[in-house]
Amino acid sequence: MPRLSRAAQVARDQVFAELKNDHKRVRKAYKDFEKLDKSDTEACSRIVEQVLLELSVHATLEEELLYPPARAALTETDLVDEAEVEHESAHQLIDQLRTMSPDDDKYAARFTVLCEYVLHHVKEEEGEFFPALENLRLEWERIAADMSARRQELLADESDDAPAIIGEPELIADDDRLPANGVADSGAANPRKI
C-alpha cells in the first residue's frame, strides 16, 4: 500500500490529536469529579454538564465523520462495530443524566459509570482503533477540515441553548464535503454515508 502524503499524515495526526485531547479533558473532569464532595450538587452538576457536552460533541464527530470511512476502508469491521455499540450505551447514560437532577441519589453513581465506561472505550480507541486507521488512505485532509467545522457548529449550537447533541447523527448535506456514494474516486471512504 502506498504511503500517505505528508499533508494526509499531518491531517490524520490532527484528527487523532483532537480526539485524544477530548479524551484527556473527560479524564481530567472525571478525576476532578471524584475529588468533589457529592453534597455540593452545584459543583457536581457543572462538571457533569461539561462532560456531557464534551462527550456529545466527540461522539457526533466520530459517528458522522470517522466511523463511516473507517467501516468502508477496513477489511475487518469489528472495531467499528464495537465502537458504535459502545457509543449507543454511552448515549443512553447521557440521556439519563440529562433528565436527572443533581440531587438524585444515583446521579453521581450514573456519572461514574458513564466515565468508567468511556475510559474503557478510550483505551480501546487509542490502543486498537486509531492504530488500525493509521495507514489507511482515507481523505484525511477532508476529514480533518470537516471535523473542525462540525465541532465549531456543534459548540455554537450548544451555546445558543440548542437541544442536546445526542442520539442519531444527522447526515451532512454540504456539497463541498465528501461524495455521497460512500467512496471517493481515490478509493477513500465517505464519512457522510452513515
Automatic annotation (TrEMBL):
InterPro entries: Hemerythrin-like. Pfam families: Hemerythrin. Transmembrane segments: none annotated. It comes from the Bacteria. Residues 154-194 are annotated as: Disordered. Residues 17-133 form the Hemerythrin-like domain. This is Hemerythrin-like domain-containing protein. It comes from Rubrivivax gelatinosus (Rhodocyclus gelatinosus).
